[in-house]
Amino acid sequence: MQDTPNPPQPQPIQAKPLRHPGRWIAAAIIVALLAWFIISALNNEAYGWSTYAAYLFDTRVATAALHTLALTVLAMLIGVVLGVLVAVMRMSPNVLLKTVAWAYLWIFRGTPIYVQLVFWGLLGSIYQSLNLGFTEIDLQDLLSNMFLLAVIGLGLNEAAYMAEIVRSGIQAVPAGQMEASQALGMSWWLTMRRTVLPQAMRIIIPPTGSELISMLKTTSLVVAVPYTAELYGRSIDIANSLFQPVPLLLVAATWYLFITSLLMVGQYFLEKHYDRGASRELTGRQLAALTDAEGAVPHNVTIVSTPPKKGSH
Predict the structure, then answer these.
(1) Transmembrane segments in this chain: where (predicted)?
(2) Contact in structure between 69 and 259 (CB atoms under 8 Å)
């Protein structure tokens, strides 16, 4: 019996990457425009670079940056704690708690933060004392503390947004987790505290980092209280005394960029830490296609073998 000759083996495809001259032209135009802007700004006396250099590390500005950080941290603490409480109340089977949580979100998300801060600043003129019937509490000293009012105003507003983030994280937990906890005899509150919230943290933590960065920039609005010892308010005070607003605004922007960059680095590592638990199962062919599309090997991928097709030998 004559042997059948083996068919010729296919040669590997010599793929050549497509050329994109339009991308290089667009990149060159952007670089040229950026260089032109930087050179023109450095040669423009209106920017006041000498004043900028003199006040960049001024003690008053550095102290104001610390006040900005204090406002950010304290307001976020109030926002996170109260946000978790409001989110749980909104998902509670109790109609009264659900209604109170909905009204809270409606008020604080439906009005501008600047308007809220102005109202907090005027609170001292509305309430001079608190009458409890058997005694009267003087509120003048408490409501004249503008730093405290700024923290409360920022924190209560942030709680409304954190509540929605927490609620999204809770709803992402499979319903079977709550059913299993209730089958074990756990109450609704105990199920939330012991089962649902710990699992939801993986989804809640990353956007909370973005809210922290946003809060840092929102502190510039506390001049509406008015509280002017933070970074933006202090820079404006110095600018008004020098009649040079532009260089002092650049000083404030530089400090904001510096602090924001540090927070963004921390957010990156935090998201990377919580992303470790997320993994995908792909076949070798799917991994190759995804790598070719993204231009890099994706992380957190487990390669699984492709099951043989029916009828194949």
Answers:
(1) 24-42, 62-88, 100-122, 142-161, 249-270
(2) yes
Hey, which of 126-140, 158-172, 197-211 has the most confident mean pLDDT?
158-172
- Residue 296: its pLDDT value, please? 56
- What pLDDT is stored for residue 115 in this prediction? 94
What's residue 254's pLDDT? 95
**Cβ-proximal residues to 140 (8 Å cutoff; 6+ apart), any chain:** 124, 128, 129
Report the percent of the chain where pLDDT is more than 70. 81
Domains in the chain and their CATH numbers?
A: 59-231+266-299 (1.10.3720.10)
Residue 121 and residue 15: Cα distance in Å, rounded? 67
User: Any bridge partners for residue 283, and if so which?
Assistant: 304
Residue 134 dihedral angles phi and psi, to the nearest 5°: -90, -15
pLDDT of residue 221: 93
Give first-to-last CA distance, the chain, whole Å.
Answer: 25
Tell me the C-alpha to C-alpha distance, in Å, between residue 126 and each of 42, 120, 141, 144.
50, 10, 14, 12
In the block, residue with structure tokens 């900005």:
68
Q: Are 235 and 248 in contact (CB under 8 A)?
A: yes
Give the total residue count for the chain.
313
Centre a 10 Å sphere on the Cβ of residue 155 and count the other Cβ atoms it contains.
Answer: 22
